[in-house]
UniProtKB/TrEMBL annotation:
Keywords: Methyltransferase, RNA-binding, rRNA processing, S-adenosyl-L-methionine, Transferase. It comes from the Bacteria. It comes from Ornithinibacillus bavariensis. This is Methyltransferase. It holds the Pfam family Methyltrans_SAM. One of its GO terms (biological process) is rRNA processing. One of its GO terms (molecular function) is methyltransferase activity. Residues 5-90 form the PUA domain. CDD domains: AdoMet_MTases, RlmI_M_like.
Length: 398
């Protein structure tokens, strides 16, 4: 940690960094050295040798590291991380005190001034996600800071240094007392099973909390609901608890069947009355058209990228076509919940895909609800890419 490297920000990028942009990118740096040690402290200066910010080197798909401080005299030490974590924890006070929700994000990367790191809370269990070897280099400081600030049942971690999960260990226990999984967490009074010992995905994506609540409280009643890319069926559970007539969950992964049954039963829902289908959604759409199945509410929440046997799906390239498939099996006046977590396009472009899909289907539509990340997924205006979640409820007009 003694290693310091000074990097010069190119003229046309200097103002951006001076006004708070946090991601250290290759294109912005005059003298980037890709071979430097992960965790190296970086001092960013402008072409006139004036200090801009300090950060760390950590390779991620997103860039080469993150700014940590704009104060030249700040030391990146134990105290630094305690202060950052304390601010982050205080910002989530209402979540810690919530009587009906005990699963939320405590640290959201650059939104909390700690790019490359997230920490989530699951009923007394903390899960740290490290997104680069660079940030992992500071693990002792960060884990000690957490231990100092909170009481916990246990701390777990995921080393998500690369997108293929090469560094993920099934049971990456850090401190406390090992849990027995699943642990059952609560979100707006709904139960969800969470496994911190099964790889990167733990059973629930916390960023959709408000969308699930909205579906349950305002859109599900009496409806025939199709939930595509359903994973553990969290949206189906929300719809069923909102008194949907029936839910159909479709996911390619075999594990999704048992996991979805589990989530239903944790909430007292008879899974025999629901359909859970393990299949490629694109096949399912064809099947549904052939059988003339139609739904009142269709939920689309695909990954940004997915590779199945035959199809490569990229949200940026293929979302429009996914919507067209959905439109073809949505009833008149029905609702499509279109969601994407792709950070490669913004809401405006997403709405462009929606518009195109309806035009090409010769349909009219109305946008009825819009969601982005919830409060605990804190973002900063200087880094709009960080606000990746886009959810739009669309009414299919006759
Ligand atoms: N909507 C879910 C999260 C989706 S995660 C939720 O709210 O919890 C993405 C899911 O898409 C994964 O479970 C993966 O198995 C599934 N998936 C990816 N490609 C698919 C395809 N072509 N057909 C069906 N499911 C697919």
């Amino acid at each position: 940690m003694k290693n310091n490297v000074t990097l010069t920000v190119k003229g046309k990028f200097a103002n951006k960094y001076k006004s708070g942009y946090p991601l250290i990118s290759k294109e912005a740096i005059l003298n980037m050295n890709e071979g430097m040690k992960e965790g190296t402290i970086i001092h960013l200066i402008d072409e006139k040798n004036r200090f801009i910010a300090k950060g760390y080197f950590g390779k991620q798909n997103k860039g080469y590291g993150w700014v940590l401080s704009r104060n030249e005299n700040e030391q990146i030490d134990q105290r630094f991380f305690v202060n950052k974590l304390r601010d982050a924890i205080n910002y989530r006070e209402s979540f810690f005190n919530s009587p009906d929700t005990n699963a939320f994000r405590v640290v959201n990367g650059e939104g909390d001034g700690l790019g490359g790191l997230t920490i989530e809370y699951f009923d007394g269990y903390y899960l740290i996600n490290w997104y680069s070897k660079g940030i992992y280099h500071f693990r002792e400081y960060i884990i000690n800071a957490l231990k100092e600030l909170v009481t916990f049942k246990a701390i777990y971690q995921k080393k998500r240094f690369d997108a293929n999960g090469k560094y993920i260990e099934e049971d990456d226990f850090v401190a406390g007392e090992r849990g027995t999984f699943p642990i059952i967490v609560k979100e707006n009074g709904v139960n969800f099973a969470v496994y911190l010992n099964e790889g990167a995905m733990v059973g629930i994506f916390l960023d959709q909390r408000e969308v699930r609540k909205k579906i349950r409280d305002a859109y599900a009643k009496g409806k025939n609901v199709l939930n595509t890319f359903s994973y553990t069926g969290a949206f189906s559970v929300a719809a069923a608890l909102g008194h949907a007539a029936k839910t159909t969950s479709v996911d390619l992964a075999k594990r999704s069947l048992n996991k979805t049954v589990e989530q239903f039963s944790l909430n007292g829902i008879d899974d025999d009355a629901q359909d859970i289908i393990v299949e490629d959604v694109f096949h399912y759409f064809k099947y549904a058209v052939k059988k003339q199945l139609e739904f009142d509410l269709v939920i689309l929440d695909p990954p940004s990228f997915a590779r199945s046997k035959k199809i490569v799906f990229s949200a940026e390239k293929d979302y429009k076509n996914l919507l067209k498939e959905a439109i073809s099996i949505t009833k008149d006046e029905g609702i499509i919940v279109a969601s994407t977590n792709s950070s490669s396009f913004n809401m405006k472009k997403f709405k462009g895909f929606i518009d195109q899909a309806f035009r090409e289907s010769n349909r009219k539509y109305q946008l009825v609800e819009e969601f982005s990340l919830p409060k605990d997924f804190k973002t900063i205006k200087e880094f709009p890419e960080g606000n990746y979640l886009k959810v739009v409820f669309i009414k299919n007009l006759p």
